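In response to reviewer comment 3 from the previous cycle, which asked for concrete evidence that the modeling workflow produces usable outputs, we include below a single protein chain processed end to end. The sequence was submitted unchanged, and the resulting structure tokens are shown without manual editing.
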Amino acid sequence: MNMLSPGDVAPDFTLTTGAGTTVSLRDFRGKKVVLFFYPKDDTPGCTKEACSFQDHIGILDKKGAVVLGISADGVDSHAAFADKFGLTFPLLSDPEKSVIKGYGVWQKKTMYGRIFHGIVRTTFVIDERGKIARVFERVKVDGHIQEVLEAL
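The workflow returned the following structure tokens.
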């Protein structure tokens, strides 16, 4: 599946959080949504990315945006990750990778000459009407929060 682009309607989803509640994208109509897909809980790059969103949560809130993180990790992993780093925004579990694939972020990757499929670190900024406003592909964590804040 191809990655979604600006102007596309963001596909709705309902996923479970580390806290055991369900969250649907449609719950946030009327707000901007920063939806970030990340490979794995409690790994260096993913921790740095999630903590940078948490560190700026007040500014994001003032800009009318909510943050949602999605990976294929299970709810127990998400709960431990959020607790360990004080993350207050929902981390959503997609073990079947239906949303991950639907947004086009499940792709071929190469590491040390090995080819495999995995989540390509990607952030979507979704506007108040549910349309994708910006896509940040193959995110480099350093400086990413500033890019997102400027996009809002």
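Residues 14-151 form a domain with the Glutaredoxin fold (CATH 3.40.30.10). We consider this sufficient to address the reviewer's concern, and the full set will be provided in the supplementary archive.
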